[in-house]
Amino acid sequence: MQKINKNHPIILASNSPQRKRLLEDFAISFTVIPANIVENIHPQWSPEEAVVKLAQQKARDVVERNLNLLQQRKFYAVLSADTVVVLQDKILGKPRDNEEAQQMIRGLSHQKHRVITGVCLYSLENDYVSDHCTTIIELEPMTSQQIDTYIENNNVTERAGGIDIENIGSIRHMEGNFNNVIGLPVEYILEKWFF
What we know:
The chain is an alpha/beta fold. It has a single domain, classed as Maf protein (Alpha-Beta Complex). 35% of the residues lie in helices and 25% in strands. The protein is built from six helices and seven strands, in the order βαβαββαββαβαα. It has helices spanning 17-25, 47-71, 98-108, 144-153, 178-182, 186-193; strands at 10-12, 30-32, 78-87, 90-92, 113-123, 127-139, 171-175. A hairpin with a 2-residue loop joins strand 3 and strand 4. Helix 3 (98-108) packs across helix 4 (144-153). The chain is elongated and about 55 Å long. The mean pLDDT is 94.
């Protein structure tokens, strides 16, 4: 695999404010062109398979609509990601509404769970490369009132499992990459695909 220079501009196939901020924090030059796909997880897919396949679909969508920009070297790569929370082998995506978010957060607030992010990078040199990163996390238990207050003050329907790790409260235990829980394992991506 030919690594990409992190100073060359890339396309981020996501509108996520957290992913944008993480790339900015690591001084990666990027432009946002969000993917336009329907995110369907097939029941036979494992969580790892699901996030990688969704990240690949997002990258393909953006590449197909912007291949000329890559060929002209206006951008050197397309980076996409998809994150899910997994509790007892059940995939939790983004909650449909606050009620579903409350159920998800209640289940997550006192049990170990996995946050899995699939990432895909397209470049002319490498075509598509994909991988995933897993972080195991356990939050401190939350009361119903704490959950309600959290939901009132956060956009829970935009986050896998309804969890915004930076605003939810205390972490009891974590194994793995914290930025993965935010939505993009930047250190992992930089080490693997950039120089």
